[in-house]
Specification:
With 595 residues, this protein is an alpha/beta fold. 55% of the residues lie in helices and 12% in strands. Helix 8 crosses helix 11 and helix 14 crosses helix 15. The longest helix is centred in the middle third of the chain and has 25 residues. It is globular. The chain binds one RNA strand of 75 nucleotides through helix 15, helix 16, strand 14, helix 19 and helix 21.
Length: 595
RNA sequence: GGCUCCGUAGUUCAAUGGAUAGAAUGAGGGUUUCCGGUACCCUAGAUACAGGUUCGAUUCCUGUCGGAGCUACCA
């Protein structure tokens, strides 16, 4: 049982004996005692005064006495206003460090002990390279997957690839017109960059044509609809839908280039997927299910043939599910994909969609519709909504060339990591490949930590200067302390000091910051999973690291005065590095041994 | 217009309804006979505004002001 639950139970017993009133253990609010007061845990007694019929401080006084007399973990107490500060037996902490905290899987719940969850993230269009916004998306989705796994969920990581539609046809048309057979091999460009280039080329040609038409006397709206290159793209889409062989071939080729490019980027980012869904496979399957919904009376078909769902009871409007010509809209497709996934994974408990907050309305509707189609899992489905990443000069706009490219940004981080490492000179003896691995881990930690430490639902500022900072509340700061701790442990081993399993000093005031944080980990993971919020893990990693760094400064680990103290410090260092490693791995951040 | 989210030091971010609102950065000052100084310590600096609920409100409710997003037979 967790310590705080023990104390709640103890408090409930004490309350019963003092005031002859039974209250549920959960009514006793236990929190860490603030540093400026004496004690380890604090019981807030204001809410209890009602039941004890005594003033808060008198209630606290009586409870404190009873809890000490219970002869359990509580050794002493003091009362400040209505706060009962409890002093716990430090031996508890010592034993905890040697037992629970020593388990290799401390902080994790057993695999398979929680339901199967599907997490969707990334899901880019196939006409443009990945950018900064995708990084936040991928890091979030990947991290949440890991957090859910640590909570015992089976997790299937997926993405839906938007591989069809007018956008990809635009790139195809431009490539046919201007490409002269250019390929990733012939150009040396990554596939996604090459296709992106033709998407831009299309846009330029289109604008020129529109301007030409306007100059020729056509009004703007008509020109925008009749520009020949646009008509050609639309015709290409029609041919694609008809299964025209040449069109489909080119579509496959160009999408293949994009996928190869994306795969490289994902590998650099350190994210991966268990299963891919392609819009071209799923975009038609929602239609049948919508028509089934009509038969069940969940949806309404109008005289013109269009199908609608009425969500006014849920505070929303009516929403179109099928056009009057019977074709699918975006929502139809998402319904189909969702149902396909429930079919693919029969024990699936819920789906988590990592998608920007501009689509909150869409997902509200989607979940309601799934519910109307009889999927009770719908109420547990979750839109992992996140805010926009803004730049100091404002929003990213591809038109204005202010998009931050994911590959370029990561390369820049790696380069800076290399420069700083060269100065520090700690990587001698490592091969070039090993060094490169270190630069990548350090650079990536800066980026991931920077994007994940902010509450996902908030818009955030991406300041390029601050993001590459290696000092302060940053990934590299955390890595540095990990590496330093590991270095101490290696040295201990080299000196023949095995990791102690017994005979450690009882932790005192100097150690309690760190011990308390180590003890918090399971609660932090649980809350992060419940709220789908990796920022909680990031903040915990930072707090723990700061506590260790400060401790390290004032205490020589291996040079402690006596053996018991040294053993405690070695154990603390080991628990620090191992739990930090878990915390960071939940953020998708891999730690180096040196940097 | 309606709906959703956000508003905390100069800046970027924290704070299950709990005690004197924490960090980082920037500014100023200090620390090294040390296991990795990419470190540590000290100083100054903030809850947009007005009500309400509560023993207690950054947190919950209402309103005002400010910012973002959604409100397509686009995806």
């Amino acid at each position: 049982m967790r310590l705080d639950q023990q104390l709640q139970a103890l408090a409930a017993q004490a309350f019963q004996s003092c005031f002859d009133a039974a209250l549920p253990a959960s009514d006793f609010s236990i929190q860490k005692t603030r540093k400026e007061f004496a004690g380890d845990r604090t019981l807030v007694c204001f809410p209890l005064a009602r039941h004890s019929r005594m003033k808060p401080d008198a209630t606290a006084e009586a409870l404190g006495q009873a809890m000490v007399e219970a002869d359990g973990p509580v050794l002493g107490y003091n009362v400040v206003k209505g706060f009962l500060n409890l002093e716990l037996d430090p031996v508890l902490w010592r034993d905890w460090l040697l037992q629970e905290a020593a388990h290799a899987d401390y902080g994790r719940r057993p695999a398979g002990s929680a339901p199967h969850v599907m997490v969707e993230y990334s899901s880019p269009n196939t006409n443009k390279p990945l950018h900064l916004g995708h990084l936040r998306n991928n890091f979030l989705g990947h991290s949440v997957s890991r957090i859910l796994e640590a909570q015992g969920h089976t997790v299937t990581k997926v993405q839906i690839i938007n591989d069809r539609g007018i956008h990809i046809c635009k790139s195809m048309v431009a490539w046919r017109k201007f490409g002269e057979g250019e390929t990733p091999e012939s150009s040396g460009l990554k596939g996604d960059k090459l296709v992106g280039k033709y998407y831009v080329a299309f846009d330029q040609a289109y604008k020129a044509e529109v301007q030409g038409l306007i100059d020729g006397g056509m009004d703007k709206a008509a020109a925008e609809k009749q520009a020949p290159i646009l008509l050609e793209a639309q015709e290409t889409l029609r041919l694609w839908e008809d299964g025209d062989a040449a069109t489909v071939d080119l579509w496959k080729t160009m999408n293949g280039w994009v996928y190869a490019g994306f795969d490289t980027t994902y590998a650099t980012m350190g994210v991966e997927f268990d299963k891919l869904y392609y819009e071209s496979d799923t975009y038609l399957i929602g239609k049948d299910r919508v028509m089934e919904g009509v038969e069940r009376g969940a949806f309404e078909q109008r005289e013109d043939g269009s199908v609608w769902v009425d969500l006014s009871e849920d505070g929303l409007d009516e929403k179109l599910l099928l056009r009057q010509d019977g074709t699918a809209v975006y929502m139809t497709q998402d319904i189909g994909t969702a149902l396909l996934r429930f079919q693919d994974v029969p024990d699936l408990d819920r789906q988590v969609y990592t998608v920007g907050n501009e689509q909150e309305y869409h997902f509200k509707v989607l979940f309601l519709v799934l519910g109307k189609l009889g999927f009770e899992q719908a109420q547990r489905c979750h839109h992992l909504s996140y805010g926009m990443v803004e730049l100091p000069e404002g929003k990213m706009k591809s038109r204005e060339g202010t998009v931050v490219d994911a590959d370029d940004l990561m390369d820049e981080m790696f380069r800076i990591a290399r420069d700083i490492a060269a100065e520090a000179g700690k990587l001698e003896g490592l091969s070039d490949a090993e060094q490169q691995e270190v630069f990548q881990r350090v650079g990536l930690s800066a980026l991931k930590y920077y994007l994940l430490k902010v509450d996902p639902k908030k818009n955030m500022m991406f300041d390029p200067k601050a993001s590459i900072d290696f000092y302060g509340n940053t990934g590299p700061f955390i890595l540095f302390n990990y590496v330093r701790g590991r270095s101490v442990l290696r040295k201990a081993e080299a000196e023949g000091l095995a990791l102690p399993t017994d005979g450690i000093a009882t932790p005192g005031a100097d150690e309690m910051d760190m011990v308390g944080l180590l003890h918090d980990l399971p609660d932090v993971v649980a809350e992060a999973a419940e709220t789908y919020n990796p920022a909680l893990i990031a903040n915990w990693c930072y707090d723990l690291t700061k506590a260790y760094s400060s401790y390290y400064q004032d205490h020589s680990i291996l040079g402690a005065d006596d053996e018991a103290a040294r053993n405690l410090r070695i154990v603390l260092t080991e628990r620090f590095t191992r739990t930090l490693n878990l915390g960071m791995s939940l953020l998708g951040i891999a730690l180096p041994e040196r940097m």
